[in-house]
Amino acid sequence: MSTRRHFAVFTTASLPWMTGTAINPLFRVAYLAKDGDREVTLVIPWLSLRDQELVYPNKTVFDSPLEHEAYVRRWIEERVSFRPSFSIKFYPAKFSKELRSILPVGDITECIPDEVADVAVLEEPEHLNWYHHGRKWKAKFRRVIGVVHTNYIAYVKREKNGQAIACFMRYMNTWVTRIYCHKIIRLSGATQDLPRSVVCNVHGVNPKFLEVGKLKLKQLQNGEIAFTKGAYYIGKMVWGKGYKELLDLLSKYQSKLAGLEVDLYGSGEDSDEVRKSAEQLSLAVKVHPGRDHADPLFHDYKVFINPSTTDVVCTTTAEALAMGKIVICANHPSNEFFKQFPNCHIYDNEEEFVQLTLNALAEQPAPLTDMQRYDLSWEAATERFMEAAELNLPVSAEPKIHQTSKASLPAFLRTRKLKQSLEDASVYLHQALSGLEVTRRAFGAVPKTLQPDEQLCRDLGLAPPSKKRRLKLKLTT
């Protein structure tokens, strides 16, 4: 293995689906590859045309992986000041309507050749491994890092029989991350505790937001009016993304907030209901379709209100701070990283929310220092990622086992061997269960996803399913 590291970053989503697990890993690979010291591959799901039509907005579809790759590269190149140098590979996937998620099909570790398998970064490791049936990640890669993006426990608790489902999911997430990952990075304390995990925000913001912040600071320093609009919120328009909390607060304190104007931007399943609820208020609360947060339309707003407590780390909050705005958000683990910024105003109760909102509308944002601006950048996020993942050491310097005295070595080896045997047995059990169609279906997997179907094989240039099964049988006998 060369001392030049190879990173393979596996995601659970891809552009043009504008979700955090599509956007943030894309920025991560761009900045990991920026200095040219690492080889980086982005591994993203490929969906059949039928599934693309269900997932991607504005009827955007791709006839081939090459066309999809060109779209992804164009998007990131328009947002960074350098030309990212990384590879893109696709794994076969299906869209689950019930889970509203993209799920892998077959053994996605096969996307990376054994000879370059070094560091695997699993963006949403629990999601990628719920139904994993294939090569053990830790057997193929030297280092497997999981980055936990989503508070799945909070979401399932809102469903029917949510408490029971949450209990099972908590166990399943712990199980698969323990057996398949060396290290877990939780973006915030809002996620469940997992084995071998550390809490660290390893996300940054699109550089364009930082440029807006610099422009606004210059306007304020020149005595110009930098912000001509009041308060707004942007996010996927579903009740669970903070809209219920926000409208409840505005409804309860309409008299105290008299004169307040709030614009809501978003698209989603609950758009019509959110609009109806907003229309019942005496306050001027307007609901608009979703837009890109980088749109110049948002530059002149002064106050970003985000009462959501289901996020892990809210990307739009970071973007608003980068643009120099005042942010009002709840005292919640998902907002812990933002407390260091003077423009982040945290409320503990409803009365504080009202007072902070009124204060924010009457005052000017504090200017960001260079260090605060840097902390929001992807350069800083990449440094935090390397440190949290314990990847700062060169390959040759990575410790294999802890040094111990000769007297304690036999006992240490026995304990280590026992732990490895237990983990191997746990992997075997998971593989056995995930290899049964009836078990997979019982726990929510898309039917017939043990192997890619003929359409996915044609799209990706893979061997047809029957030939793959015969080859696998030949290799294992």
Automatic annotation (TrEMBL):
It is found in: Plastid, Chloroplast outer membrane. It is an enzyme of class 2 (transferase). Its EC number is 2.4.1.241. The keyword Cell inner membrane does not apply. Gene3D superfamilies: Glycogen Phosphorylase B (3.40.50.2000). GO terms for biological process: galactolipid biosynthetic process. Coiled coil: none annotated. This is Digalactosyldiacylglycerol synthase 2, chloroplastic. It comes from Oryza brachyantha (malo sina).
